[in-house]
Amino acid sequence: MESQSGYREIVPGTKISHEYWDQGASEYARENLEHLTIDRLIWGPEGWDEAEVRWLGDPSMLAGRQVIEIGCGLGQGTRYLSSLGAKAVGIDVAAGMIREGIELAARNKAPAPPLIAADATQLPFAADTFDLAFSAFGAVAFVLDLAALYSEVARVLKPGSRWVFTTAHPMRWVFSDDPADVAAPAMRRSYFDRRPYVEMRGEVATYAEFHHTLEDHAAALAAAGFVIEDLKEPRFAPGIETTWAGWSKERAEMFPGTLLISARLR
């Protein structure tokens, strides 16, 4: 059956991301392990390493803290926080990713903090459980309802705690996805067109990624009780030359590909 892709409306609440990442977990692990590493927290395609940038704060202050990674994938970030002494737990909607992450840690004798299959909008934790929440290109782009996601993160955080995440910068949706298109990048759609990118097999949606503008992020965070403390649009880290999907060093000099937001719960 022929596959198609494009921008179209889909029924809210569909579990497309669950099925896609669950079924493709093994392939994802094989193709991306070198880039993602086993137990380092790399914030995105630009290659910024938490051990160097400390966007989560002083590592010595993380020991003993209750930390949750939202959309943990193979659990690299969760393992990194665990290695610092944090009481870290990772959640991901795809049980296949969790399984691959647990097996990866076992094969490499790496730290093995809890990794749990769970929906980011329905977290299996009590209110006021965590001191810090983070996501490195995890769930944010794959959730249609930002308000539901951010309010659920707020629910499980203690007052005064931070929510730090990276996701695809909304400007990426305006231009072509060709990483070599740098001289005069072609605008492909309106910044305000919020139809998701969807891949179809016949009449069945097999993949979906959702476009959220900066205004969408700010409004949903404020409604959930967060105050934005920092916003970054990182260029490529020194020495990083790898082209990853639609991200390249050359394009990063033209417009941002990644958005980082650090917000504190009131």
Q: What does this entry look like structurally?
A:
With 266 residues, the chain is an alpha/beta fold. It contains 8 helices and 10 strands. The chain has a 7-stranded mixed sheet with strand order 4-3-2-5-6-10-9, sandwiched between helices.
Task: Spell out the blueprint of helices and strands.
Layout: E1 3-7, H1 16-23, H2 25-36, H3 50-53, E2 66-70, H4 76-83, E3 87-92, H5 95-107, E4 115-117, E5 130-136, H6 146-156, E6 157-168, E7 197-201, E8 204-209, H7 214-223, E9 226-232, H8 249-252, E10 258-265
Helix pairs in contact: 6-7
Organism: Bowdeniella nasicola
Protein name: Ubiquinone/menaquinone biosynthesis C-methylase UbiE
Keywords: Methyltransferase, Transferase, Ubiquinone
Structure summary:
The protein has 266 residues and is an alpha/beta fold. It is built from 8 helices and 10 strands.
Number of domains: 1
What is the C-level CATH assignment? Alpha Beta
Helix content: 25-40%
What would the average pLDDT be, to the nearest integer?
A: 87
Largest sheet: 7 strands, mixed
Taken in chain order, the helices and strands follow as: EHHHEHEHEEHEEEHEHE
CATH architecture title: 3-Layer(aba) Sandwich
Could you list the spans in which at least 5 consecutive residues all have pLDDT below 50?
Answer: none
Strands, count:
10
The radius of gyration is: 18 Å
Q: Count every helix, treating DSSP H or I runs of 4 or more residues as helices.
A: 8
Give the class from helix and strand content and strand pairing: alpha/beta
Amino-to-carboxy terminus distance: 50 Å
Predict the CATH topology: Rossmann fold
CATH homology superfamily name = Vaccinia Virus protein VP39
Q: Which word captures the global form?
A: globular
Q: In percent, how much strand structure appears in the residues?
A: 15-25%
Report strand order across the widest sheet. 4-3-2-5-6-10-9
